[in-house]
Amino acid sequence: MGPKKGLGQHFLFDERILQKEASWADCKGKRVLEIGAGEGNLSRYIAKEAGHLVLVEIDRKLCKVLQEKFGNRKNVRIVCGDILEEEGIRHEHFDVIVGNIPYYITSDIVFMLAKMDFSRAILCVQLEYAEKMAALAGSHNYGRLSVTAQAQFEIELLDIVPPSAFSPAPKVNSAIIQLVRTGKVITEEDGKIITALFCHRRQSVKKAIFNSRKLLGIEKAEAHDIRKRVKYAERKVFTLTPEEVAELCPSLRSLMRT
Ligand code: SAH
Q1: Considering the entire predicted model, what is its pTM?
Q2: What is the pLDDT of residue 110?
Q3: In a mutational test of the pocket of ligand 1, which residue from 34, 64, 101, 107 has the highest number of ligand atoms less than 8 Å from its CB?
């Protein structure tokens, strides 16, 4: 059986890009986690350098391949499972996290990373996703994802990877990005506020609050009152920087409670 599309299996085989990715990851002597190791194309480069490398892969067939390739290396541990379910690994410390990650769960992985203990992540993601993550306030691509990602990470776009570097080739361009944790984590409550605001990204903050009152769980009269007193009331939602959103959230929360 060939690659499983449902698991986002597109194997990166361009050696030049793999090499570059490994050198950005800079894993010498470090504790490294690779998410979705596949057939071990990237792992091969990392295993040579890392002090300790944990490979996570969900597909049993591929785990077998990884076992054959890396089973005898003392610095490599292979975990066959779903990265989103591996509680133990999510609580370990890693210096570097790498992965050409499955695109169908990019958001889940990024939100998981925000809560993990690591210094740097080098990931290959869909280009469009990378552009949304890194978009500047006021720009076309700027939205909920940009705000939450930029609050939690410093994001750098390192390279663009064409479909032809993968087998099978995906339909879209990809990008290699670096994430460095800021140390801040968006709480579920603030996540809800950000969603509510950015559903109406072209509107003013006060209008967006009124229109999203159901999502926010507030009554019409309360929404009327809050929208007059909230910080940045007159600004268009999509022009608010992540820092301004970080001020707006507690302002709105305190008004919602009184
Ligand atoms: N890193 C490899 C494979 C990339 S494809 C390479 O560059 O060639 C993405 C990989 O993630 C696939 O091997 C897929 O089986 C695996 N995968 C998909 N969902 C996963 C999950 N929830 N947890 C861990 N691995 C997953």
Answers
A1: 0.93
A2: 93
A3: 101
Distance CA 143, CA 133 (A): 9
- CATH class of the structural domain 188-257: mainly alpha
Token digits of residue 171: 């339909």
Which residue, judged by its Cα, is nearest atom 22 of ligand 1?
A: 82
- The whole-number average pLDDT for the span 124-146 is 97
Which numbered atom of ligand 1 lies nearest the CA of 86?
23
Output the pLDDT for position 159. 98
Predicted confidence (pLDDT) per residue in 63-101, tens digit: 999 999 999 999 999 999 999 999 999 999 999 999 999
Would you kindly state where each structural domain of the chain is located, as residue ranges? 5-181, 188-257
**166: number of Cβ within 10 Å:** 21
List, in order, residues 6 or more apart from 220 with CB less than 8 Å away. 213
* CATH fold of 5-181: Rossmann fold (3.40.50)
Please tell me the distance from the alpha carbon of residue 105 to that of residue 252, in angstroms, as a whole number: 31
Q: What is residue 50's three-state secondary structure?
A: strand
- The amino acid present at 53, given as its one-letter code, is L
